[in-house]
User: Which sequence fits this backbone?
């Protein structure tokens, strides 16, 4: 962060800075960059080195090292943990598709005009409010244990099914708000232009407003999906044997917490590229907006 | 009844406490070109937006071909098909190519097949020198080109009436002429138009009739020669005086 912050300052100096001879300006840019780099490296060494020193010289360090960072347990747990992770992958891939559809539907319903549709809008609003208010944990319990417990003919018993349902219901509430913000960010003149050509409100949404909205909200959507990927471990509570449950089993068998560290590593490896990709999209979008003057 | 395509009677429109239109009466005949002039805030744009039903009116009627389009239960989408409007800020759809901008309404509203709609659109674009831009997105075009595309997009619906809302106000001065030339060509082709404009020279050339709006009313209404050379109303004279002082006439 410190490093990229420094180089960004240097970038800005170019066009904004005072009009000096080109050669001179370049050299001072380079000097500035070198200075920023040195400071960034030095402060990183001091901060992280200091933290490591404090942790490793703490009285309980050896015990913690043993129970959290045991190489043998790690090697034993990792293959099983990775194998179990495919359950999480399947879970969030299925849920993501359903969330996109359901979230967009909710957002569009809330954007529909006219007093006759008020009950629909109200339902969508209440839905998003309620499902954002209740902790996902409770919803998992209620759906995963409660609904199958009713014993109604034809209602699935499979915890994986209820895991997908829960994640879809909870995350659709968040995602619909993201879509709604996107829809509202499209300037009303776009709708006016579409309507003036004779398109209905629904056609205007379908062909003009929503396509522009979706493009704008891709970065925040990916952000929500990063959260979703991690929340897939919650479904271990209703008996889906996925990555976290597998790690729990491994940990209990070895009397050692190292399998959880393995889980953490797996999530970092999977989430990091998505986080970087999201940031890259945001930067690209900002650059584009700056070029075209934004609003239109 | 008459030849009037558009008849506006006793039109009132307020935004909150601000009454923008205070009783407008105006009739526009087929093939007639009417220019609305007046200071910013005099109600020109609001009047056009009311005719296109983009604003709900408070009182009065708007009649198109003897059909009251402000009556209750009227199908606004059907009416808007027959009235084209071009906005000051172009309002092209930035996520579509020029060709898709032009063909969207013919395809989705009139139910034309894509090849048919694209053939018609390409012909129109060719007529206005825009054919080679058809696969570009609007951002790649100059302001003048974008505004010409916006005019073509409105024309693709074959409207009975075209409303132009200060279509050159957002353009760099050197791009104004290309857009005005398109409008001239449309007028020569007999298109019925109501044009809100600050381009007085253009209004004098092109209009059959000029209406001067002030304070939400049509203060004076007549052929351009009369309005620009011997205005009857003091307020019209003052307005034109200011325009002349600003070097715009």
Assistant:
């Amino acid at each position: 962060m410190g490093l990229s912050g420094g180089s960004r300052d240097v970038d800005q100096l170019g066009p904004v800075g005072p009009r000096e001879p080109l050669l001179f300006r370049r050299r001072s840019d380079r000097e500035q960059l070198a200075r920023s780099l040195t400071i960034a490296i030095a402060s990183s060494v001091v901060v992280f080195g200091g933290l490591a020193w404090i942790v490793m010289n703490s009285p309980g360090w050896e015990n913690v090292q043993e129970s959290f960072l045991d190489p043998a347990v790690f090697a034993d747990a990792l293959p099983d943990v990775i194998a179990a992770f495919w359950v999480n992958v399947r879970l969030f891939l299925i849920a993501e598709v359903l969330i996109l559809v359901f979230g967009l539907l909710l957002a569009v319903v809330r954007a529909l005009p006219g007093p006759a549709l008020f009950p629909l809008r109200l339902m969508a609003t209440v839905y998003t409010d309620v499902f954002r208010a209740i902790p996902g944990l409770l919803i998992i319990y209620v759906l995963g244990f409660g609904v199958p417990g009713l014993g109604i003919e034809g209602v699935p018993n499979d915890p994986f099914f209820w895991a997908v349902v829960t994640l879809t219901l909870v995350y659709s509430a968040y995602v619909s708000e993201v879509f709604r913000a996107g829809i509202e960010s499209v300037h009303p003149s776009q709708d006016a232009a579409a309507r003036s050509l004779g398109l209905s409100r629904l056609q205007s949404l379908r062909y003009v407003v929503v396509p522009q909205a979706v493009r704008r909200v891709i970065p925040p959507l990916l952000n929500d999906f990063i959260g979703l990927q991690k929340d897939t471990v919650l479904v271990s509570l209703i008996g889906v044997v996925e990555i976290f449950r597998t790690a729990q089993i491994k940990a209990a068998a070895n009397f050692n917490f190292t399998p959880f560290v393995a889980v953490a590593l797996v999530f970092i490896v999977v989430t990091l590229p998505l986080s970087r990709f999201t940031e890259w999209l945001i930067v690209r979008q900002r650059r584009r907006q700056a070029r075209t003057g934004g609003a239109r | 009844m008459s030849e009037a395509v558009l008849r506006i009677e006793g039109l009132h429109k307020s935004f909150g406490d601000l009454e923008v239109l205070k009783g407008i009466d105006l009739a526009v005949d087929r093939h007639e070109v009417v220019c609305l002039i007046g200071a910013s805030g005099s109600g020109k744009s609001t009047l056009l937006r009311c005719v296109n039903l983009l604003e709900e009116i408070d009182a009065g009627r708007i009649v198109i071909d003897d059909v009251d389009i402000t009556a209750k239960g009227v199908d606004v989408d059907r009416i808007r098909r027959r009235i084209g409007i071009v906005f000051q800020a172009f309002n092209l759809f930035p996520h579509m190519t020029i060709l898709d901008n032009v063909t969207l309404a013919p395809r989705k509203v009139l139910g034309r097949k894509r090849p048919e709609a694209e053939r018609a659109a390409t012909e129109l674009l060719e007529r206005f020198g825009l054919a080679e831009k058809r696969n570009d997105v609007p951002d790649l075009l100059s302001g003048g080109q974008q505004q010409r595309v916006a005019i073509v997009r409105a024309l693709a619906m074959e409207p009975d009436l075209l409303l132009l809302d200060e279509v050159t106000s957002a353009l760099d001065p050197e791009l104004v002429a290309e857009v005005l030339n398109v409008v001239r060509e449309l007028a020569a082709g007999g298109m019925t138009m109501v044009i809100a404009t600050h381009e007085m020279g253009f209004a004098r050339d092109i209009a059959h009739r000029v209406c001067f709006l002030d304070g939400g009313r049509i203060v004076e209404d007549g052929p351009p020669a009369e309005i620009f050379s011997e205005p009857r109303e003091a307020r019209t004279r003052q307005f034109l005086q200011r325009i002349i002082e600003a070097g715009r006439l």
Summary: Confidence is low (pLDDT under 50) at residues 1-18 of chain A.
